[in-house]
Amino acid sequence: MDYLEKIIVDISETLKNKDFKEALESSVPMSEKRVLDFLNAHSEIPKLAKEVEEIKNKVLSNIDYYIDRVMESLKFINGNPHYAETKDDALDVLDKIIGEKKKIILSKSMVAEEVGVREHLEEIGKEVWETDLGQLLIQLEKGKPMHAIAPAIHMTVNDVIKLVKSKLNIELKGDENPQQIVAKIRPFLREKFINADVGISGANAISADSGSIFLIENEGNIRLVTTLPPLHVAIAGIEKIVPTLLDAFKVVLVQSSYAGLYPPTYVSMISGPSSTGDIGHRRVYGAHGPPEMHLILLNNGRKEAIRNDVLRDQLRCIRCGNCQIFCPVWDITANKWGGKVYGGPMGVGWTAITEGIEKGAELSQLCLGCMRCDTACPVDIPLSSLIHKLKMSYFYI
User: Fold this and answer.
1) CA–CA gap between residue 248 and residue 64 (Å, rounded)
2) CA-based nearest residue to 274, from 283, 266, 265, 282
3) What does each C-alpha distance from 344 to 24, 40, 98, 228 come to in angstroms?
4) pLDDT in tens, 89-134
5) What is the pLDDT of residue 124?
6) How far apart are CA 180 and CA 172, in angstroms?
7) Segment 191-205, tens digit of pLDDT
8) CATH 1.10.10: does it fit domain 3-41+308-396?
9) Dist CA 115 CA 124 (whole Å)
């Protein structure tokens, strides 16, 4: 059975799953309406999205310069920059940074999923916990994220209750509402936060001029992941780089708006490790946050995609997940229509970049060509055209 056949079989089985269907039907229409209503009421956001598109193109046109700039800026603020050509390189760097430390907490990161961070660390004997509630459920399910922003969008409340009861041994009666379930999980994760040796995050944007990492969230877990453990490691694709601090704020505003999460509850800007100059007027590191901070910039096919006329535009993607919500195929399959990590319209291009054009081309065969994804993308990635070109290339691979 080849790759495409496996995907089709998996989707066919999924379509028979009533709970999967119920979960998507209860959330997708509401998500689409929320984004459209917000954008209709805030005409400044699409204008800002156009600026982000131009910012992204500027960086992609001179990517090596901006990578070097981030590395220099991060060193200046006492951070530790690393560059990884491949997934294996990223894991090697991570292993050296972590060393013998055992307890590790993660915030939701598509790049960490792409690299296989959690699975790798578990294999070498580390205790690893996802702290985003949706991503924790994916860890317990041993599945893959079903949406860029809402990884457990395919689970009903009853699914969650069963999973939490069986995997975390948390006592639940079976009739709890979401608020009550969250209250039960909170103390379990709180213990993981407090005792962690290492916190690993992604990055929504990275400013080249300052080396600052920007992170958006609603739960508050990212702030704990990046400040409570004595060591913070961020992993991000090189496409997350933007020229300035102001540019990074623009990305944050656009991503949260098109994800239906505006205003985000928390926006964190991390510029190196924790420090203070209050004693003796001398800067020392490790006040209340971590004294050590690292950033791993990952290529993994991205530079090659910049040189590819078909895939280059995909690198403007800000991972808002809006194209997924607007896609009629994704609406019934979620990321079952996708590669190892990335699914839906954005997932076709990202799978081609990170797993190979052959896999992206195979995924493209399931696209209806309705072009709704084009209207959903805030940075005008011509997704339907990109997918169509991959679809045509399928017959010549």
Assistant:
1) 18
2) 283
3) 14, 25, 34, 35
4) 999 999 999 999 999 999 999 999 999 999 999 999 999 999 999 9
5) 98
6) 9
7) 999 999 999 999 999
8) no
9) 15
The pLDDT value given to residue 397: 60
Secondary structure percentages of the chain, helix, strand, coil, to 5: 55, 15, 30
Count of CB atoms within 10 A of residue 127's CB? Answer: 14
* CATH number belonging to domain 62-300: 3.40.50.10420
Q: Two tokens at 372?
A: 């709704």
Query: What own/partner pairs with CB < 8 Å and gap ≥ 24 does 114-118 have?
Result: 114/87, 114/237, 114/298, 114/300, 114/340, 114/341, 114/342, 114/354, 115/87, 115/90, 115/91, 115/235, 115/298, 115/300, 116/87, 116/91, 117/91, 117/200, 117/235
In tens, the pLDDT along 12-53 reads: 999 999 999 999 999 888 899 999 999 999 999 999 999 999
CB 148 within 8 A of CB 321: yes
State both tokens at 150.
């809402």
Question: What is the domain partition of the chain in residue ranges?
Answer: 3-41+308-396, 62-300
Could you tell me the two tokens for 301? Answer: 């096919």
Joined tokens for residue 366:
């399931």
Contact partners, residue 71, CB within 8 Å, separation at least 6 = 81, 83, 297
Cβ burial of 341 (10 Å; 0-12, 13-18, 19+) is buried
With b for 16 or more beta-carbon neighbours within 10 A and e for fewer, the 356-377 pattern comes to ebbbbbbbbebbeeebbbbebb
Q: What whole-number distance in Å separates Cα of residue 132 and Cα of residue 221?
A: 6
Structure tokens at 392: 């045509």
Which pLDDT value is given to residue 3? 85
CA distances 336 to 154, 331, 353, Å, are 10, 11, 18
- The proportion of the chain whose per-residue pLDDT surpasses 70, expressed as a percent, equals 99
